[in-house]
Amino acid sequence: MGVKQPLDVPVAMIVYKRLDKTKQSFAAVRSVAPKKLYIIADGPKDAEDKKQVQAVREFIDSHIDWDCKVYRDYAPVNMGARYRMPSGMAWVFKKEDRAIFIEDDIKASPNFFYFCRDMLEHYKNDKRVAMISGCNLYPGDESFGKDDISFSSFALTWGWATWRRAWQDYDVNIRNWPQLKRKNVLRKVMSADTRRFFTVVFDDLQYHWYKIWDYQWYLMMWSNDRLGIVPKYNLVNNIGMGDEAGEHPGDTQDKVDHISNVPLKVLNLPIEYPSWIKRNKAYDKMFEKKFYTEKIGIFKRIKYAIRAAHYEKVYSVIKQMEADDEYFNKKLQDKYKLSPQEVALNNGDKYRLITPKEMIKSANKYKAYKKKQDRLEKKQQGKKQ
């Protein structure tokens, strides 16, 4: 294979059913021959999905032709990106203290893996740094400065690496968002326009609407004053933009076209490390302006604010219902119950709400149940007196 230096940092590939893109993503992994390879795969939705999912798994198995330890975490059913990605990453960090992650729609240069390796080692004990990104969508912009790396609040997870110490603070269901929202933690990180966009996104994520996982990671970083490393040059390409699995709220066609076509370059290693860790505010300001382009008008903001306030109350009822073991075990419909395996995969939640409509219906049923129980208790107390 011509590999001079097999990679001694674990690499985790996250795949599903996109064989054509998986082949491109896997080629980069194969070129650096990692000594440990983790395969995280989502399960099929239906019979047609099953064929495509199986084709991807068989391709990877038949093309691991170097000496390495392979670990597989194959979901038997479809979990979706929101739960499959974090559960797979948590599985990796039960075994490793650091890892490089690459999804099936990320085409990376070999340089990316060795760059991550060096950064993971150099900053392993510095809790101010939460992640390393291989992605620089605007290389050459003067705001980046002269260093080989920069520290940003907007490092992307399209080809990235992190440590167990950072991952342990991640919560896919962002249970602390209401408190963070009241504290206005986003104000110190971003402009008013971007803050409005993310407030809407996190409100909806709180109630399980968006099926994404990575914005929750960014919230963890922002709320804990942590930064990500961005390289001087772009080391990865997202070749999945526009696919159903690759969409994010706020994407536009111009943004998709740009992201898919940023040239890859080689960053000479080892780099000369900056003498201090400091957020590059000029770069982040430029990034915000170019990347987070969606504007949310006053009427839409009012609509979302009213909706979020309503659902926060509903959600508080749902959490009470979850804690009521007697009700949960005896009254809840079977379709809402999760198996022990699903509970583990869903961050410990034993009850996962799929739609806002179901959430409202369930909350109303529980409130009616509690009122009935309260009346019965008062009646019994009256008899005793």
Task: Give structural notes.
The protein has an eight-stranded mixed sheet, sandwiched between helices. A two-stranded antiparallel ribbon has the order 5-10. The chain is built from 14 helices and ten strands. The chain folds into two domains: 11-291, Spore Coat Polysaccharide Biosynthesis Protein SpsA, Chain A (Alpha-Beta Complex), CATH 3.90.550; 298-384, no CATH class. 47% of the residues lie in helices and 12% in strands. With 385 residues, the chain is of the alpha/beta class. Helix 1 runs parallel beside helix 2 (47-63), helix 7 (192-206) runs parallel beside helix 11 and helix 11 crosses helix 14 (356-384).
Helix-strand blueprint:
Blueprint: E1 11-15, H1 19-32, E2 36-41, H2 47-63, E3 69-74, H3 81-93, E4 98-103, E5 106-108, H4 110-122, E6 129-133, E7 149-152, E8 160-163, H5 164-167, H6 177-183, H7 192-206, H8 214-223, E9 227-231, E10 236-238, H9 253-260, H10 281-291, H11 298-323, H12 325-331, H13 340-345, H14 356-384
Parallel strand pairs: 1-2, 1-4, 2-3, 6-9
Antiparallel strand pairs: 4-8, 5-10, 6-8, 7-9
Helix pairs in contact: 1-2, 7-11, 11-14
